[in-house]
Each structure stands twice: as C-alpha cells, then as structure tokens.
Design brief:
Largest sheet: 4 strands, antiparallel
Order of helices and strands: EEEEEEEEEEEEEEE
Number of helices: 0
Strand order of the largest sheet: 3-4-5-6
Helix content: under 10%
C-alpha cells in the first residue's frame, strides 16, 4: 500500500503512501510519478514531492474509462500509455487533456489484444512492448 523509491545503488530515498491496489508505475522526465489503481479503475499522477496532482478515469468501457488498468508507460513526447486490462486495449493519453485519450488501441497487427498487462516503451523508437496475457505472448 505504498510506493518506495530507491536510487540505483539500492539506497532508500522515500516512501509514498498509495491507494489500495497499486499496480503499474512509471515516471516522467519532469519527475512526476504515474501509477495505476486496479480497484478504483484510475490512473493517478503525483508531483515530484509525492502529492496527488490529479486522477483520471473511472470504471467503464468508453474512451477515458478503465476496467482494471495494469501497466503504464510514458513515450518520448510525454504521452501516457495505459494497458486497460479487462477492456483488452491500450489507451494513449495526453496529460494536458487527460479525460480524452488521443488513441485507443485494441489490435496489434493481425492480433486482437487480450488482457494487456505490463509494458515498456523503447526510448529509441517509441515502440510499445506489451505483455498480452490473454494470448500468452509479448507484442
């Protein structure tokens, strides 16, 4: 029920109290921390001091709504990518307009996403790697 921060040498820096079901976590170049919350179906953004700046989303199936958001990553241009696990999609969000996703992705090539979970954005290409748990492979 907390987020702990360590430096690369393993030295403890701080502890940030969090919501009930913290799942995914990432940071932005401006030291904001973005976390996904499974039980509230939200994505929370904390400032560099660990204080809540804003939350986005609610439970649902419309763009901007989530059903168990799991993974979260940030692209080079600062867009937030959220794996919307039980809606079987990714949502790409501009933090300056968090209520309206820029894009909703439910297919990767010829494959439909099924339970996307943890992910990584390659900083050299902005390609998104997704653990697609419902299909048991990474796309």
């Amino acid at each position: 029920k907390r987020l702990q921060e360590f430096d690369e040498n393993g030295r403890f820096i701080r502890c940030i109290p969090c919501t009930q079901n913290l799942c995914g976590v990432t940071t932005t170049p401006t030291r904001e921390t973005i976390i996904t919350d499974l039980s509230e179906h939200k994505v929370h953004t904390l400032n560099a001091d660990g204080q809540l700046m804003y939350s986005m989303g609610s439970r649902g199936t419309k763009p901007g709504e989530f059903h168990n958001p799991v993974g979260v990553a940030v692209t080079n241009n600062g867009h937030v990518v959220v794996s919307d696990h039980n809606n079987h999609r990714l949502q790409i969000i501009d933090p300056s307009r968090p209520t309206t996703p820029l894009r909703v992705i439910s297919k990767c090539g010829n494959h439909t996403l099924s339970g996307p979970a943890f992910m990584f954005v390659d900083p050299s290409s902005d390609n998104i790697f997704v653990a697609n748990l419902g299909r048991s492979f990474v796309e």
